[in-house]
Amino acid sequence: MLAPTSPSLTTRVVTARLVLRPPRPTDVPELRHLLRANADHLRPWEPAPNAGEDPTSLTVVANRVTRQRRDWKRDHSYALLVTSRAPGEPIVGRVTLGGVLRGAFQNAYLGYWIDREHQRQGLMSEAVGGAFAFAFGVAGLHRVQIAIMPRNPGSLRVMEKIGVRREGTSERYLQIAGRWEDHAIFGITADEWTAKNAAG
């Protein structure tokens, strides 16, 4: 089942300090540079790459952008680059609504990262809020789930700041950096998001 209103690849979500938008082929060089600069910062929180694969190589980054745009058109996944509203709109991170399931579920799984130089400024919370607005707006989803390792205080803080409901813990839930890791599971529905916005 397609989204009630299929989001366009020209979609832009604008927040106070950020713009969230789909990746473009012209983003590949800048995105590759950002991923290389953040390789050590992101490695503990991501699945290990395939043997012999450099996840920051030009080919891998370009193929990923192509796949993300294809998945966007097919309503499979929505990758949103997080850019600053400063001149030139530099990329500072990414938020992804992946594994979109329609039918009776209407759910997606949220993942996110931010450049280490832009941490502790509230930008990730702002970006996740923008992603929820997109998910429950033009994407027409009912629910978004987030899985976070308990030893990742930065990501847990994002959920706390936004007020996302914690649903429990899934043991050995995902293989991250080569190890099966427990994850705290958070969930938010469209009606909860609407109520939060109405309450300010």
Helices and strands in order:
Blueprint: E1 13-14, E2 18-21, H1 28-37, H2 39-42, H3 58-73, E3 78-84, E4 91-101, E5 107-114, H4 123-136, E6 143-148, H5 153-162, E7 165-176, E8 179-189, H6 190-199
Parallel strand pairs: 5-6
Antiparallel strand pairs: 1-2, 2-3, 3-4, 4-5, 6-8, 7-8
Tell me what you see in this structure:
This protein is α+β, with helices and mostly antiparallel strands. It has a single domain (13-199), classed as Gcn5-related N-acetyltransferase (GNAT) (Aminopeptidase), CATH 3.40.630.30. It is 32% helix and 30% strand. The protein contains six helices and eight strands. An eight-stranded mixed β-sheet has the order 1-2-3-4-5-6-8-7, with helices on both faces. Helix 1 (28-37) packs across helix 3 and helix 4 packs across helix 5 (153-162).
